[in-house]
Write a structure and sequence with these properties.
By secondary structure, the chain is of the alpha+beta class. About 20% of the residues lie in helices and about 15% in strands.
Length: about 120
């Protein structure tokens, strides 16, 4: 399963240093979910990741760090890291020029022009 949590396209100088990459076979799990960072040990997973990895046909979870969700924050120099730590969500949005949000309700009009109510959906924008 660890091979499904790897991303060979990430440059070596950006990979995490907070745990032993060799022991974890270059996997990129969330370090706070690891029981040990120095020896191979169980890793806590969310239900979505767990179901993707334990499926009949295991696959990389959509929102795993290995699926281009890892940004290498721990490898930034100190001034840059401090700037990110002190930035507001608005500052971060301006810097990134992009963001993800979840739409919980989708409001629409029906074909007759009256309000059609809402249908609950979860859409990533």
């Amino acid at each position: 399963m660890l091979t499904l949590l790897t991303n060979p396209t990430l440059p070596a100088h950006t990979l995490p240093e907070s745990y032993d990459l060799v022991i974890y076979r270059d996997a990129i799990p969330y370090p706070k979910g690891m029981e040990s960072t120095t020896s191979l040990a169980p890793v806590s997973l969310c239900t979505h990741c767990c179901s993707a990895l334990l499926a009949k046909k295991p696959h990389q979870p959509k929102n795993s760090l290995a699926n281009f969700q890892y940004y290498g924050h721990e490898r930034l120099d100190m001034p840059t890291l401090q700037a990110f730590d002190g930035a507001s969500p608005f500052d971060l949005t301006l810097i990134s020029r992009a963001r993800a949000s979840t739409v919980t309700f989708y409001y629409n009009y029906n074909s007759r022009g009256s309000r059609g109510g809402y249908a609950p959906v979860a859409v990533w924008v």
